[in-house]
Design brief:
The structure is a single chain. The chain has one domain: glutathione-dependent formaldehyde- activating enzyme (gfa) (Alpha-Beta Complex), CATH 3.90.1590. The protein is 9% helix and 35% strand. The strands form three sheets. A seven-stranded mixed sheet has the order 8-9-10-11-6-5-12. It has a three-stranded antiparallel sheet with strand order 3-4-7, with no helix packed on it. It has a two-stranded antiparallel ribbon with strand order 1-2. The structure holds zinc ion (2 copies). One zinc ion binds next to loops.
Length: 167
Protein backbone atom coordinates (compact mmCIF):
# COMPACT_ATOMS: atom_id res chain seq x y z
CA UNK A 1 0.00 0.00 0.00
CA UNK A 2 1.48 3.28 -1.04
CA UNK A 3 0.51 6.19 1.15
CA UNK A 4 -1.21 9.04 -0.58
CA UNK A 5 1.15 11.95 -0.77
CA UNK A 6 0.06 15.48 -0.29
CA UNK A 7 2.32 17.30 -2.74
CA UNK A 8 1.56 20.69 -1.24
CA UNK A 9 2.67 19.67 2.24
CA UNK A 10 5.71 17.96 0.75
CA UNK A 11 6.44 21.10 -1.19
CA UNK A 12 6.30 23.19 1.95
CA UNK A 13 8.47 20.68 3.80
CA UNK A 14 11.14 20.54 1.12
CA UNK A 15 11.23 24.17 0.17
CA UNK A 16 10.34 24.05 -3.49
CA UNK A 17 10.82 20.59 -4.90
CA UNK A 18 9.65 17.10 -4.09
CA UNK A 19 11.28 13.77 -4.67
CA UNK A 20 9.11 11.04 -6.16
CA UNK A 21 10.55 7.76 -7.34
CA UNK A 22 14.02 9.16 -6.85
CA UNK A 23 13.51 12.10 -9.18
CA UNK A 24 13.09 15.70 -8.27
CA UNK A 25 10.16 17.51 -9.83
CA UNK A 26 10.27 21.25 -10.19
CA UNK A 27 7.12 22.39 -8.43
CA UNK A 28 7.42 25.95 -9.65
CA UNK A 29 5.72 24.78 -12.86
CA UNK A 30 2.06 23.72 -12.95
CA UNK A 31 1.59 20.65 -10.86
CA UNK A 32 -0.81 18.24 -12.51
CA UNK A 33 -2.20 15.25 -10.67
CA UNK A 34 -4.45 12.43 -11.68
CA UNK A 35 -5.07 8.76 -11.43
CA UNK A 36 -7.22 5.77 -12.15
CA UNK A 37 -10.76 5.00 -11.05
CA UNK A 38 -9.83 2.88 -8.03
CA UNK A 39 -7.00 5.16 -6.89
CA UNK A 40 -4.24 2.54 -6.94
CA UNK A 41 -2.32 4.37 -9.68
CA UNK A 42 -1.62 8.07 -9.32
CA UNK A 43 0.55 10.40 -11.38
CA UNK A 44 2.24 13.67 -10.62
CA UNK A 45 3.31 15.74 -13.59
CA UNK A 46 5.15 18.97 -13.98
CA UNK A 47 3.14 20.91 -16.53
CA UNK A 48 1.76 22.40 -18.53
CA UNK A 49 1.45 19.64 -21.16
CA UNK A 50 3.19 20.25 -24.47
CA UNK A 51 -0.15 19.79 -26.17
CA UNK A 52 -3.55 18.19 -25.69
CA UNK A 53 -5.00 16.24 -28.60
CA UNK A 54 -8.21 14.40 -29.35
CA UNK A 55 -7.34 11.20 -31.19
CA UNK A 56 -10.04 9.57 -33.29
CA UNK A 57 -8.02 6.53 -34.39
CA UNK A 58 -9.46 3.07 -33.97
CA UNK A 59 -6.70 1.85 -31.66
CA UNK A 60 -7.02 4.73 -29.21
CA UNK A 61 -10.80 4.38 -29.28
CA UNK A 62 -10.60 0.74 -28.27
CA UNK A 63 -7.83 1.32 -25.75
CA UNK A 64 -9.80 3.87 -23.78
CA UNK A 65 -13.29 2.52 -24.53
CA UNK A 66 -14.60 5.91 -25.58
CA UNK A 67 -15.52 7.40 -28.94
CA UNK A 68 -12.63 9.86 -28.70
CA UNK A 69 -9.37 9.49 -26.79
CA UNK A 70 -7.82 12.68 -25.48
CA UNK A 71 -4.16 12.73 -24.53
CA UNK A 72 -1.88 15.29 -22.94
CA UNK A 73 1.73 15.15 -24.15
CA UNK A 74 4.54 15.42 -21.59
CA UNK A 75 8.25 14.83 -21.39
CA UNK A 76 8.45 11.40 -19.76
CA UNK A 77 10.88 12.76 -17.20
CA UNK A 78 8.22 15.20 -16.00
CA UNK A 79 5.67 12.54 -15.04
CA UNK A 80 6.07 10.27 -12.03
CA UNK A 81 3.81 7.31 -11.46
CA UNK A 82 2.79 5.75 -8.17
CA UNK A 83 1.25 2.30 -7.95
CA UNK A 84 1.15 -0.52 -10.45
CA UNK A 85 0.98 0.88 -13.98
CA UNK A 86 0.46 -2.19 -16.17
CA UNK A 87 1.65 -2.12 -19.73
CA UNK A 88 0.25 -3.64 -22.91
CA UNK A 89 2.19 -3.60 -26.17
CA UNK A 90 -0.54 -2.51 -28.57
CA UNK A 91 1.65 -2.60 -31.67
CA UNK A 92 5.29 -2.79 -32.71
CA UNK A 93 5.64 0.92 -32.05
CA UNK A 94 3.36 1.70 -29.13
CA UNK A 95 2.30 0.57 -25.68
CA UNK A 96 -0.65 1.38 -23.43
CA UNK A 97 -0.52 1.95 -19.71
CA UNK A 98 -3.43 1.06 -17.44
CA UNK A 99 -4.28 0.22 -13.85
CA UNK A 100 -3.78 -3.48 -13.19
CA UNK A 101 -6.63 -3.44 -10.66
CA UNK A 102 -9.47 -1.38 -12.18
CA UNK A 103 -8.38 -1.26 -15.82
CA UNK A 104 -8.50 2.51 -16.27
CA UNK A 105 -6.60 3.61 -19.36
CA UNK A 106 -3.89 6.03 -18.27
CA UNK A 107 -1.35 6.61 -21.03
CA UNK A 108 0.33 5.47 -24.16
CA UNK A 109 3.92 5.55 -25.22
CA UNK A 110 5.46 5.65 -28.67
CA UNK A 111 8.45 3.31 -28.55
CA UNK A 112 10.75 5.22 -30.92
CA UNK A 113 10.31 8.30 -28.73
CA UNK A 114 10.47 7.16 -25.10
CA UNK A 115 11.20 10.71 -24.02
CA UNK A 116 7.52 11.49 -24.54
CA UNK A 117 4.45 10.13 -22.79
CA UNK A 118 0.79 10.73 -23.60
CA UNK A 119 -1.45 10.78 -20.55
CA UNK A 120 -5.22 10.33 -20.84
CA UNK A 121 -6.81 13.68 -20.09
CA UNK A 122 -9.82 11.94 -18.58
CA UNK A 123 -7.56 10.66 -15.77
CA UNK A 124 -6.56 14.19 -14.74
CA UNK A 125 -7.96 15.44 -11.45
CA UNK A 126 -8.70 18.73 -13.22
CA UNK A 127 -9.17 18.07 -16.94
CA UNK A 128 -11.08 21.35 -17.27
CA UNK A 129 -7.81 23.22 -16.92
CA UNK A 130 -6.30 21.77 -20.10
CA UNK A 131 -8.60 22.06 -23.11
CA UNK A 132 -7.64 20.12 -26.21
CA UNK A 133 -6.08 22.05 -29.06
CA UNK A 134 -6.15 19.54 -31.93
CA UNK A 135 -7.98 16.68 -33.53
CA UNK A 136 -5.94 13.80 -34.89
CA UNK A 137 -6.87 10.94 -37.22
CA UNK A 138 -10.06 12.68 -38.22
CA UNK A 139 -10.30 10.20 -41.11
CA UNK A 140 -11.28 7.58 -38.53
CA UNK A 141 -13.78 9.75 -36.65
CA UNK A 142 -17.15 8.12 -35.99
CA UNK A 143 -19.60 9.15 -38.70
CA UNK A 144 -22.31 10.33 -36.32
CA UNK A 145 -19.97 12.42 -34.21
CA UNK A 146 -20.20 16.10 -35.11
CA UNK A 147 -17.30 18.38 -34.30
CA UNK A 148 -17.83 22.11 -34.36
CA UNK A 149 -15.03 23.37 -32.15
CA UNK A 150 -12.99 24.59 -35.13
CA UNK A 151 -9.76 23.17 -33.75
CA UNK A 152 -6.99 22.30 -36.22
CA UNK A 153 -7.23 18.77 -37.57
CA UNK A 154 -4.88 16.20 -38.98
CA UNK A 155 -6.60 14.04 -41.55
CA UNK A 156 -4.43 10.95 -41.71
CA UNK A 157 -1.43 8.89 -40.91
CA UNK A 158 0.50 11.09 -38.54
CA UNK A 159 -0.29 11.40 -34.89
CA UNK A 160 -0.27 15.14 -34.29
CA UNK A 161 0.91 14.55 -30.74
CA UNK A 162 4.29 15.88 -31.82
CA UNK A 163 4.24 14.23 -35.19
CA UNK A 164 4.67 10.61 -34.17
CA UNK A 165 3.13 7.78 -36.11
CA UNK A 166 -0.07 6.10 -35.12
CA UNK A 167 -0.12 4.23 -31.83
ZN1 LIG B 1 -7.18 1.56 -10.56
ZN1 LIG C 1 -4.78 7.35 -31.72
Amino acid sequence: MIARLDPQSLLRASGGSIILCGRSIDMSADEITGGCLCGDVRFYASGPPRRVTHCHCDMCRRAVGAVVATFATFESSRVDWRGQLARYDSSDCAWRGFCARCGSSLCFGYKPRPERIYVTLGAFDDPNAYPAGFHDHLDQKLSWLTIDDHLPTVASAKHSADGEGSP
